[in-house]
Amino acid sequence: MDNSIIQGFSKYTKQQRIDALIRKYGFEPDLADWLGSFEAPDETIRKIIADLSENPVSSFHLPFSIAPNFVVNEKNLFFPLVSEESSVVAALANAAGFWAKRGGFHAEVLGTEKKGQLHFKWNGNPEYLQSLFPEIKLKLRAESDFLTAKMEARGGGITHIELKSLPTILPNYFQLDGGFETCDAMGANFINSCLEQFGKSLQDYFLTSEKVSTGQRECEIIMAILSNYTPESRVRACVECPVNKLVEGKTDADCLQFAEKFEQAIRISQADVSRAVTHNKGIFNGIDALAVATGNDFRAIEACGHAFAARNGRYSGLTDVLIQDGLFRFSIEIAMAVGVVGGVTAVHPLSKLAMRILDNPSASELMMYLAVAGLASNFGAIKALVSVGIQQGHMKMHLSNILNQLNIPEEKREEIQSYFHDKTVSFSTVEEYWKNLESSI
Ligand code: MEV
């Protein structure tokens, strides 16, 4: 393998990038054709996708799926979902259909304020700086007017700026902690631009104000960046039904037993970190699938959600359950920042379609749908875990992946599927069964 360091890879044409791959790894010379077969035939679409990132050599496909019957605040929607994990979409569709017959999901947004921080060092008295801060704040706001005017016209803007002295983190270390309303945008560019401007204005203040002594004119900006932790941008969703309607075709006692086991599973996720992580991973199976389909930054949504799960000093499950007066109430509360304008949402053709499928939601509506997707996914997982177990559903879907991996001919698949319908599926058991079947043909 050629291990030489490549200079200027980003300037290579696509063909040159592919040639570099062939040279380094010894791939077949027709690699370009093969990679090309994954690209959209339409040139405009091909270009849109390629322009989303750097150095592309092809397009990476994931299924774009639909889960119908999501009733959210009485609105009946299809959820567009992108996931590589078998059974995520099936679990969401099942939960949606189940709760559609029981009044659907109820959701509300509890706040939409985003956050950003300017991190800086200044060699002076923190109390004195705090006393200057009202004046500094006016300057910061006035000098970022040119950035905030449009956002303010849309009802957003800077909500607050606070000064924090944090010498226990670093000597002479301060933060400007800003709050921002970004309307239908996730707001990353807006927030970062405001913060960088704050940095310039702050440095200018120290340089020019007569209230700052000559030895303290230096202000070192460490960095200016939004915080992906947005605890004031929060959404809640819940479902509710009589306990005796929880399991179709079962007695009241069976339903109650199911509800109690479900509740135990939730309590465990709230108290035990090892379980909480897996529990929340299942929640993000749903949230991420909808976030990816709508072109949202699922890493930001996950990072925020996990931090929110640890807001009380211990990482916990994000859902809760209450069994009271014969009612089963299952809910989620989660912090997140999402957008429906700007970013990939309005660029990727399938994200644009996803937004239309969701009836072009506002950012707040999308937050509700994401919370609902998380709750539905968690409901499906816990329901399976405390009853038949997770493997039954998982393995049925996993089997079709294994059949693909083993290149099993279409006409033989049904026979294999029916053989494994009541057996444990693993790659080796399916492979062995197929080998025996093949040799008997
Ligand atoms: C698998 O992707 C997700 C689950 O592990 C979630 C859970 O355990 O709650 C099934």
Report the order of strands and helices.
Answer: HHHEEHEEHHEEHEEHHHEEHHHHH
Measured as a percent range, the helix fraction is 40-55%
- Our Rg estimate from Cα atoms comes to 27 Å
Taking strands numbered 1, 2, ... along the chain, how are they ordered across the largest sheet?
Answer: 3-8-10-9
Approximately what portion of the residues adopt beta-strand conformation?
15-25%
Give the CATH superfamily of the largest domain.
Answer: 3-hydroxy-3-methylglutaryl-coenzyme A Reductase, Chain A, domain 2
CATH architectural group of the largest domain: Alpha-Beta Complex
Query: How many distinct helices?
Result: 15
Briefly note the CATH topology name of the largest domain: 3-hydroxy-3-methylglutaryl-coenzyme A Reductase, Chain A, domain 2
Query: Which sheet architecture does the biggest sheet show?
Result: 4 strands, antiparallel
In total, the number of strands is 10
What's the average pLDDT?
95
Decide which structural class fits the backbone: alpha+beta
What is the number of domains?
A: 4
Shape: globular
Task: Say which molecules are bound, naming each kind only once.
Answer: (R)-mevalonate
